[in-house]
């Protein structure tokens, strides 16, 4: 599902604000930089509004955001829909007791952590990040929430790179994005 | 200055915000009583109240830039920016921001660290506030102030949820006012 396909009139303004930076962090990668979107208050507000309109009134009590750019979009959505915000972080950043989920990178692996007790069994949750590429990080995030007994209702990202087929790696969970980049 | 001593005396929201913050002893090292704001984020009312207090303070000050220190500054800055119609500018550790950046080094207890900001994000003459979750030594915030001043912005104030009691009264950081909601919990 994507607002891109639905052609909401706000999408064009959002898409044009995203800057592509070639060869970052490594040669060959066309990095989708959302910081330029954050410099445009109207486009940033439209971005949040699109997600809030979709998720308000759907009994979602948890918005989980992936460090660090998920921290920019997740909290405004959580606050507007009446949900709590749960940060999902790289290792050793969260104090106290955590659960960990390892995931595979192109080279090597990484790990995502969530606080024990942040989420209760039966809660309905969203996972938010700025972008989905291969889907590895989002899948790890979903696993953390499901291990705590939550129901992942949907994954929400500003940008999708459809050629990397991340959508297919989400265990059948729906993905909602605002823009696609090929 | 602390909110409870300047304009928000007796405001019940402040106690609820303080109560929602969890103390984790000996993190990241022995002897440190870590002020964990993640429990505040789980309390929708207290989290919203935190942001409302900052928004009410800054909405009519002609602020066009909210700069937030990665990563916990990202949990507060964007919502404030959205509510007051300002842009949000992330200040990040090295190698996180793509494209051209300016860097400011600062001193830690052991060694140095560095904060970066995008070239072109902030224009000369813009009025800015800087947000982080907590101020301790002020090293990170001082580096943030220097970054914004180097591009000609005017730093109106630095705002933190938590601050050490040393920052009471008219204490200024690099000459800039500091606005804090609560003290650390024991």
From TrEMBL, chain A:
Locations listed in the record: Cytoplasm
Start and end residues of each Phosphoribosyltransferase domain: 41-164
Cytoplasm keyword on record: yes
Catalytic activity: AMP + diphosphate = 5-phospho-alpha-D-ribose 1-diphosphate + adenine
Coiled-coil ranges per UniProt: none
Repressor keyword on record: no
Keywords: Cytoplasm, Glycosyltransferase, Purine salvage, Transferase
Enzyme Commission designation: 2.4.2.7
Enzyme superclass (EC): transferase
Annotated Pfam families: Pribosyltran
Pathway note: Purine metabolism; AMP biosynthesis via salvage pathway; AMP from adenine: step 1/1
Family designation: Belongs to the purine/pyrimidine phosphoribosyltransferase family.
Subunit structure as annotated in this protein's UniProt entry: Homodimer.
Protein name: adenine phosphoribosyltransferase
Species this protein is from: Hevea brasiliensis
UniProt lineage: Eukaryota, Viridiplantae, Streptophyta, Embryophyta, Tracheophyta
């Amino acid at each position: 599902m994507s607002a891109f396909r639905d052609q909401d009139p706000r999408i064009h303004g959002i898409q044009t604000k995203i800057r592509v930076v070639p060869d970052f962090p490594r040669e060959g990668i066309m990095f989708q930089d959302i910081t330029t979107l954050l410099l445009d208050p109207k486009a940033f507000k439209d971005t949040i509004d699109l997600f809030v309109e979709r998720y308000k009134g759907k009994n979602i009590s948890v918005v989980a955001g992936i460090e660090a750019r998920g921290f920019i979009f997740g909290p405004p959505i959580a606050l507007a829909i009446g949900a709590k915000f749960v940060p999902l972080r790289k290792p050793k950043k969260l104090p106290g007791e955590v659960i960990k989920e390892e995931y595979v990178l192109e080279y090597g692996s990484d790990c995502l952590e969530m606080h024990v007790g942040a989420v209760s069994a039966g809660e309905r949750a969203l996972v938010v990040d700025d972008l989905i590429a291969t889907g590895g990080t989002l899948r790890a995030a979903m696993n953390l929430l499901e291990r705590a007994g939550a129901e992942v209702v949907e994954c929400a990202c500003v940008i999708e790179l459809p050629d990397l087929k991340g959508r297919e790696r989400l265990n059948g969970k729906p993905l909602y994005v605002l823009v696609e980049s090929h | 200055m602390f909110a409870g001593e300047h304009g928000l005396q007796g405001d019940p929201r402040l106690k609820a915000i303080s109560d929602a913050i969890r103390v984790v002893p000996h993190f990241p090292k022995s002897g440190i009583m870590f002020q964990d704001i993640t429990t505040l984020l789980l309390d929708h009312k207290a989290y919203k109240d935190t942001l409302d207090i900052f928004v009410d303070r800054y909405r009519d000050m002609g602020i066009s830039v909210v700069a937030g220190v990665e990563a916990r500054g990202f949990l507060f800055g964007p919502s404030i920016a959205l509510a007051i119609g300002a842009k949000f500018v992330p200040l990040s550790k090295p190698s996180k921001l793509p494209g051209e950046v300016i860097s400011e080094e600062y001193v830690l207890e052991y060694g140095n660290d560095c904060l970066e900001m995008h070239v072109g994000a902030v224009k000369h003459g813009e009025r800015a506030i800087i947000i982080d979750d907590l101020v301790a030594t002020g090293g990170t915030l001082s580096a943030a102030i220097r970054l914004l001043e180097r591009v000609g912005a005017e730093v109106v104030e630095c705002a933190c949820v938590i601050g050490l009691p040393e920052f009471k009264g008219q204490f200024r950081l690099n000459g800039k006012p500091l606005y804090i909601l609560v003290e650390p919990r024991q």
